[in-house]
Amino acid sequence: MSARETAELLLQVGRLVQAEGYDGELSPAQWMALRFFARANPFSRTPSAFAEFQATTRGTATQTIKALEAGGYLVRQRFKTDGRSVSLRLTSKGKKALARDPFEVLVRAVDSLDATARTAMRRALHQVLCTLATSDARRQIGVCQDCMHFGREMSGKLPSTGPSAVECLLLGVPIQPEDIGLLCVHFQPVNEHREDEHE
Ligand code: SF4
């Protein structure tokens, strides 16, 4: 199969999932925002991080977020340390809506592949994404496990951290275990060898 045929298949998958997104209470962009804020770590629950993730303008991202706030799906909180910054989170209505997310159709389709095919697919798509992000000079958004700033040596640095605590070497803060698999706007990819450790 040629590279063009494979790329067209990717496009078709995207189109089909996008079309599924119109069959519900929210637009595809609004579903994307709900998914993002459900999966974003504490440093990334902001309109600008969502704009980066969606590869769109801050204005477009803000409109999507405002519609979700008006509909009662998202709420914003001011950071205590910075009155200008906000943190967005899902309300219980947002969480209930996400349980009906049309994107799940794609999750189930991927889940129906065997483990070897899923691993190969993840690796290949990750590589394609890295290439696109590099050539387009866009920031990639990923999780701590795949990030070059992910450190494991925090014991003793802070009184609140235990022997198995992990640290963000970029931000110099401990990473809570429940946040390790969440999306981060400060993410920088490591090379593929490190990724293999987490399959
Ligand atoms: S390790 Fe990377 S992904 Fe995790 S919080 Fe730090 S910058 Fe973000």
Automatic annotation (TrEMBL):
<dbReference type="InterPro" id="IPR039422">
    <property type="entry name" value="MarR/SlyA-like"/>
</dbReference>
<dbReference type="GO" id="GO:0003700">
    <property type="term" value="F:DNA-binding transcription factor activity"/>
</dbReference>
<dbReference type="Pfam" id="PF12802">
    <property type="entry name" value="MarR_2"/>
</dbReference>
<dbReference type="InterPro" id="IPR036390">
    <property type="entry name" value="WH_DNA-bd_sf"/>
</dbReference>
<dbReference type="InterPro" id="IPR000835">
    <property type="entry name" value="HTH_MarR-typ"/>
</dbReference>
<dbReference type="InterPro" id="IPR036388">
    <property type="entry name" value="WH-like_DNA-bd_sf"/>
</dbReference>
<feature type="domain" description="HTH marR-type">
    <location>
        <begin position="1"/>
        <end position="130"/>
    </location>
</feature>
<dbReference type="GO" id="GO:0006950">
    <property type="term" value="P:response to stress"/>
</dbReference>
<protein>
    <submittedName>
        <fullName>Transcriptional regulator, MarR family</fullName>
    </submittedName>
</protein>
